[in-house]
Amino acid sequence: MSTVQLGMPGVRPQHASPVSTLRGERGFPEAAREALGDATLRANMRHATSTIQAKRAGAVREVRDWQKLRSAGSALKWQVTDHLPELLEQLEESVAAAGGVVHWARDAEEASEIVTRLALERDAREVLKVKSMATQEIGLNEALAHAGIRAIESDLAELIVQLADDTPSHILVPAIHRNRAEIREIFLAAMPDLDPSITDDPAELAEAARRFLREKFLDMPGSVAICGANFAVAETGTLVVVESEGNGRMCLTLPRTLISVVGIEKIVPTFQDLEVFLQLLPRSSTGERMNPYTTLFTGVHEGDGPEEFHLVLLDNGRSSVLEDPEGRSALHCIRCSACLNVCPVYARTGGHAYGSTYPGPIGAILSPQMTGMSGTDDPNSTLPYASSLCGACYDVCPVKIDIPEILVHLRAKDVDRRREARGEFHGSWDLALKGASRLMSSPRAYDLAVRSAKPLSSLLPGANIGRLPGALPIIPGWTDHRDLPSPPQSFRSWWDEREKERVARGPEGPASDGPGENGRARSADGPAPDGDASAAGTPDGEERP
Amino acid sequence: MRISLMTTCLVDVMAPDVARATVTLLERLGHEVVFDRRQTCCGQMHTNSGYYTEAAPIVRSFVDTFEPALEEVDAIVMPSGSCTGCVRDQHALVARHEGDTALEERTAAVAARTYELSELLVDVLKVTDVGAYFPHSVTYHPTCHSMRFLKVGPRPLKLLRAVEGIEVKNLPESDTCCGFGGTFSVKNDATSDAMVTDKAANVVASGAEFVVAGDASCLMNIGGKLHRTGAAPRSVHLAQILASTKEDPFVPSETILGRAS
Questions:
Q1: In angstroms, rounded to a whole number, what is the distance separating the alpha carbons of residues A495 and B27?
Q2: Are residues B175 and B236 in the same domain?
Q3: Where is this region: Disordered (chain A) (predicted)?
Q4: CB distance B43–A33 less than 8 Å?
Q5: A320-371, pLDDT tens digit by residue?
């Protein structure tokens, strides 16, 4: 393993620590099967994702140079990836110069320890939070609770999730899997002062949350708030929080102490680069031209905002993502969640099936890279396969992360690891694909196999094959749900018969170039002896003419 | 033109009439079709499943078969968007994974002459009205690889709209994946089933008699679901519609993607 400079001397890339909420209990297929059986969830997801997706499409259509913006976003993110160590050091200097304190956290535990210590030192028993993926990822609320500190989420959807003792299932809309009626029940159970006559009207529900939170905000002076950041500007030390509800603005301005937990990949080089990302993010994310609240803050200023600012820069597996040249662009993600909303898999299974803070297509490439894929039993080894590779995610990604290509790359990594590990390369898929590879790289054997496919299929009655017994490998996954054609004759057998007729009839086929052409050019070469194939690597030694 | 037909393994075995229709169509347009029996598979299943090392000999076999003929044929045609995509985008990846730079160069030479059917017709043979006759209502499913990787765009619809007697109906949520995804359909069968169930319902909602696409694998998935649920619409490949004429009209057989006459 090579070392990657992270602004600290000689840091060795390491995976996210196990306490991170980046890995579920079960693999994707099993978790998805359960989610798919939940009709309410299916309906909630379908409605929500199609609504946001349509809104995004409209907001993007308005921008004539959208593709150029995407390219600019992608180029800036590559610049960050290529120069991360220098940029991190620059950020540290800028933040310090503006009166902030920078802490470095190798993993989830270190980050939680730093934040907990800072809160305890300030005698905080309650801390207010701005919705943040990084703090979700490191399980900060649980770590704080362990130290006797209560974290209160101030984002409406995050609050719903917290009050229901649930986990988020979407990057932008953590409670996307809940409908209005469910949210009303959650509020009634968790807010003792709430009038039971409240309906499931969104305005009434929002008002209830507003009253609940306003009391917390009013308590804030002298206290601690915790946030993440969408961007951190290396040049100026400025942090940017993009939000819709104004809860973020409250949390970022009212407390005495502000702590930001930020992944090391959130850097942008210069202040001007925000021009690109502040156009890309809201349109991709909420489908708005501009989000209602964008808060930029740089260090501390006497008499204005927090008196103390702490920045916790988090690795937690990001250095190991950075280590893979073909997978590292997963770090370019700006957490807009456009890929979730457009994904036909996510829209049906919901986010919990992915088992990670980061669900959907981006989660399927980010989570396994952050945690590593430790083997067949690792639930995160199933994530790169949780996609039909339809490519819709790549089309909508505002920074052009080629998610399908990285999914396939990670599948190859998973297979390569198994192939290289002693005695692990013999699962049913391994055996089937090894066998198919031998057959499909042997023209003669393959030709024979295809010609005999007809007699085999004729063992099963009917023009199509219906449900097959589960004892057969692989195929039942298909025939449990759909019928399979059982054609009477392969193409190549038909072609041969036609060629024989042609030769018997003489050279006057519809498009014949002339006499003597048919036999050779039309059917080219029959199954050739090995020596006849091109010299560079006839693939297998087992083939016998 | 002389055109080499790469049927794709799935069509050769599971949907042979799609290849037969491709031959019929191209010959009717005055072109010569050749078929090299050494062809096997493009290696897409192995590549997309992450078995690059096992895909490599298949890719070599593919190149060994089609590279020597590049001087004798004008183009290679595949009646499949996803297999063409594999040849164009993934063969080089496989070669690189194996550290085989010679193979990488050879794959590029073959890929440069390989076309999906609608690309061949519209871009190379410069034809949109192929003289077909298909007096039925159809709805068009664009298939993900044709739409997003090859970017065939409106080509198939241009070809379809020029068919005599045809009525093209709108497919709701047409650009959503049918859920096939190769081994995804088996490894994540419950999710794949949820996707194809929705796709089949949208085909029924379109009110069309047929759902048409440029990829037999997606059609086998959608057609298999329609058949299982007893829904009326049938799946049909673009080549089968374009091959259909007044003299020799396409009549579906009981077999999915099959032809009765």
A1: 14
A2: yes
A3: 1-26, 478-545
A4: no
A5: 999 999 999 999 999 999 999 999 999 999 999 999 999 999 999 999 999 9
Q: 3-class SS at B106?
A: helix
Of B26, B103, B187, the CB nearest to A385: B187
Output the CA–CA distances (angstroms, integers) from residue A135 to A20, A109, A232, A312, A545, in the order listed.
10, 11, 16, 11, 64
Q: Is A437 on the interface with B (CB under 8 A)?
A: yes
Q: Enumerate residues 445 to 474 of chain A having a beta carbon within 8 A of any beta carbon in chain B.
A: 446-447, 450, 453, 462-464, 466, 474
Q: What phi-psi label fits residue A537: left (phi over 0), alpha (psi between -120 and 50 degrees) or beta? A: left
What pLDDT band is residue A385 in, cutting at 50, 70 and 90? very high
Residues B17 and B64 in one domain: yes
pTM of the model: 0.92
Can you read off the two tokens belonging to residue B141?
Answer: 């499913």
Q: Is residue B248 part of a domain?
A: no
For residue B234, is it within any domain? yes
Q: Please say if the pLDDT value at position A8 is more than 80.
A: no
DSSP-assigned states of every residue in A115-160: HHHHHHHTT-SEEEE---HHHHHTTHHHHHHHTT-EEEE-SHHHHH
Residue B142 lies inside a defined structural domain of this protein:
yes
> Does position A470 have pLDDT exceeding 80, yes or no?
no
Same domain flag for B142 and B117: no
pLDDT of A185 over the 90 cut: yes
* B254 within domain boundaries: no
- Spell out the residues 6+ positions from residue A278 whose beta carbon is closer than 8 angstroms to its own: A240, A242, A290, A294
* Number of structural domains found in chain B: 2
Backbone angles phi and psi of A466, in degrees to 5: -95, -150
Contact A261, A138 (CB under 8 A): yes
Return the exposure string of A273-306: e unless at least 16 CB atoms fall within 10 Å of the residue's CB, then b: bbebbbbbbbbbbbbeeebebbbbbbbbeeeebb
Of B60, B175, B191, the CB nearest to A349: B191
At A474 the pLDDT is 56
Is the pLDDT confidence value at A9 over 80?
A: no
Supply the range of the domain harboring residue B210.
Answer: 137-243
Of the candidates B38, B43, B235, the residue with the CA atom closest to the CA atom of residue A445: B38
Whether residue B196 and residue A495 make contact (CB cut-off 8 A), yes or no, is no
Mean pLDDT score of chain A: 89
Q: What does the pLDDT read at residue A45?
A: 93
Whether B139 and B168 have beta carbons less than 8 Å apart is answered as yes
Which residues share a beta bridge with B76?
B4, B114
Q: Which residue has the tokens 């198939």?
A: B156
Whether residue B91 sits in one domain with residue B16: yes
Predicted complex: ipTM over 0.90: yes
Which of the four pLDDT bands, split at 50, 70 and 90, describes residue A456?
A: low
Cα–Cα distances (Å) from B96 to A395, A408, B40, B109, in that order, read 25, 14, 21, 15
- Whether residue B64 is found in the same domain as residue B28: yes
Q: What residue type is A47 in one-letter code?
A: H
CA atoms within 13 A on the CB side of B220: 24
Q: What is the pLDDT of residue A452?
A: 82
Q: What is the pLDDT of residue A479?
A: 87
Instruction: Single out the residue in B124, B154, B186 at which a domain terminates.
Output: B124
- Residues A209/A96, Cβ–Cβ less than 8 Å: no
For the A80-319 domain, the top CATH level (class) is alpha beta
Q: Which two tokens stand for residue B135?
A: 């007096």
